[in-house]
Specification:
Blueprint: H1 5-8, H2 14-34, E1 36-38, E2 41-46, H3 49-62, H4 64-165
Helix pairs in contact: 2-3
Amino acid sequence: MKLNPHILQTNPGRSNLIMNIFQLIDLLEEEIEDGANVLLSPHKKKVDQDRIDEIISEMRRSLPEEIRQAEMIRQEKQRILEDARLQADAIIRDAERRAREMTGENEIVKMATEKANEILAAANKNARDVRAGAKSYAEDILDELSKYFEEYIEIVRRNKQSLSSKN
């Protein structure tokens, strides 16, 4: 069986290339099937090596564009997957950073609230202490004034009596 030159013409169209490859595979199968059986070995065939080489060479000439396209698609897929993985990693890192910041901010707010409550409690205690001290001081002053006035009233009474008895 000779190679049909029409079948072996490579056409730039994708479907024609694929059809050409399938036709070449069919030719290769026919060559093997039509080969003579080797004596005492029914599973081995004797084939025309030149014809097989010619078919394989034509297959190689037909495949490169398809293989290049497939490889470009595979590389593009890998690049897209890698970009997606990098973006996902960046999003995760950013989310983790934000979570740490928010946790830190919550801790800061919590600590500030606790400190403010402590300061407020101390200020209230200090105000109670100051009021109690002021009240005690005022009571002491009033007691002293009361004694002072009582002494002067006594002096005024005595002077008044002394004036009355001299009359």
